[in-house]
Design goal:
By secondary structure, the protein is mainly α. The chain has one domain. It has helices spanning 19-37, 47-68, 73-93, 97-107, 113-136, 160-177, 184-201, 204-220, 227-233, 236-252, 259-267, 271-282, 298-307, 318-326, 328-347, 352-364, and strands at 144-147, 150-153, 385-390, 393-401. The strands form 2 sheets. Strands 1-2 form a two-stranded antiparallel sheet. A two-stranded antiparallel sheet has the order 3-4. Helix 3 (73-93) packs antiparallel against helix 4 (97-107), helix 5 packs antiparallel against helix 6 and helix 8 packs antiparallel against helix 16 (352-364). The longest helix has 24 residues, at 113-136. The radius of gyration is 21 Å and the shape is globular.
Length: 405
């Protein structure tokens, strides 16, 4: 395959453009556009213009992959096929998040994974704080939903679960970046944030996930000096297969005649029944199809909740969405990428990323954010440069580029 010399691409001042600069420019654009898209800022913005920002980011990533990177010819064939499938999925479903995520995964080759997570954390933290401030100041809407007699506030995001999911992923990024420094004060801080988020949003499952985060991260944050600790730490990669498989199976065979399933569905706020409805109505597709969903999110969703709640239909689980909406092929590829990262790190006795990805999988059982770049930056670890760690410390600062995929 013909490649172009990087020296031929220059700014007007003759300064060479680097692939890393293109990547982080695209990353910043996509993080901002994707974040804003799921807030009440959209009441004042044109959705087409926001989408254009993501398409610009996608174009920059394509330039980085095909001009700046030096994949082998057969790797380029694989990348082109996968991106082609993702593009086709976008055209069939009218949802671009999977296409954007896959382009970032491949474009992350040669980029420091620490830098990726740090930029994600800094930008999203700033956006979260500004969104909360603007909503509390009345500049944008702070939508108030209700469950029974309990009010649930979204603080500028489209829905309370979106707000709590942002908090969850920000805390995951914080744990990754400060892995070596985490102590009881930091863990207590995360639990306090969890409690405050629960008070505002009344997101019960998400609150439990934050507690699980602390327990899981503690299991890999100390020296693995017992067989039990090593067993737990080395189990996260295959649990990332078992959990999605089990959840999809339970959803597919869900029935109201089974009292155990009904109780589980109630604990999951009806997610099993809605997933089953999705399977029955749309089936499992190979390449995806457009699914008409009507969720509570945003001003229109709040209006529907108050006036016509019977119209509600939304598939929350990322794994069920992949099968029903994006298609079986992309679903398998996404799971292979996720499990591949976990297995690769586990084989090297590096348990931080497998633990984090296990938490991502656990969250993705009940939310739709696994393949949304504004929430989950951790799948970009496939080809980026991931530091080697020993119980949270850099091993002589050694960074290994992951070229084999």
């Amino acid at each position: 395959m013909i490649t172009f010399s990087r020296d031929k691409l220059r700014w007007f001042n003759n300064k060479t453009i680097s692939g890393e600069q293109l990547f982080f420019a695209a990353f910043a654009l996509s993080l901002i556009a994707s974040f804003v898209f799921n807030t009440t800022f959209m009441d004042y913005l044109n959705v087409n213009y926001v989408n254009l920002v993501n398409y610009l980011a996608f174009a920059l990533l394509i330039v980085k992959i095909y001009i700046f990177d030096n994949f082998k010819w057969y790797e380029y064939i694989g990348i082109t096929v996968i991106l082609g499938l993702a593009f086709l999925s976008w055209r069939r479903t009218q949802l671009s998040n999977v296409m954007i995520m896959f382009s970032f995964i491949f474009a992350a080759r040669g980029i420091s994974f620490n830098k990726i997570v740090r930029q994600y954390f800094n930008i999203n933290l700033m956006l979260m704080l500004l969104t909360m401030l603007y909503s509390l100041a009345g500049i944008i809407k702070n939508l108030a939903f209700f469950r029974g007699t309990t009010f649930r506030y979204s603080l500028g995001t489209d829905y309370p679960t979106d707000f709590s999911a942002h908090i969850f992923y920000l805390c995951l990024a914080y744990c990754y970046l400060n892995y070596k420094k985490m102590g009881w004060l930091q863990w207590l801080g995360i639990l306090v944030i969890d409690y405050l988020t629960y008070l505002v949003t009344d997101t019960r499952v998400d609150a439990l996930l934050m507690i699980l985060m602390v327990l899981v991260m503690l299991s890999v944050s100390r020296k693995l000096n017992t067989k039990l600790k090593k067993f737990i730490a080395s189990s996260y990669w295959y649990l990332s297969i078992v959990l999605p498989y089990s959840y999809v199976l339970i959803t597919y065979y869900f029935t109201f005649s089974n009292p155990v399933m009904v109780k589980l569905d109630q604990a999951l706020s009806g997610r099993l029944a809605l997933g089953k409805e999705g399977f029955d109505k749309y089936g499992i597709t190979l390449l995806g199809k457009r699914v008409i969903e009507r969720g509570w999110g945003g001003s229109d969703g709040l209006h529907m909740m108050k006036n016509n709640p019977g119209k509600y239909f939304f598939i929350d689980s990322s794994f069920v969405r992949l099968l029903v909406i994006n298609g079986l092929i992309l679903g398998i590829i996404a799971l292979l990428i996720l499990v591949g990262i976990s297995l690769r790190e586990t084989v090297k006795h590096e348990y931080l990323l497998p633990a984090i990805l296990f938490l991502v999988v656990s969250s993705s059982l009940i939310d739709q954010h696994m393949l949304e770049i504004t929430y989950n930056p951790f799948m970009l670890a496939l080809l980026s440069c991931v530091p080697q760690t020993i119980s949270g410390g850099l091993k002589n600062g050694k960074v290994k580029e992951n070229n084999d995929w």
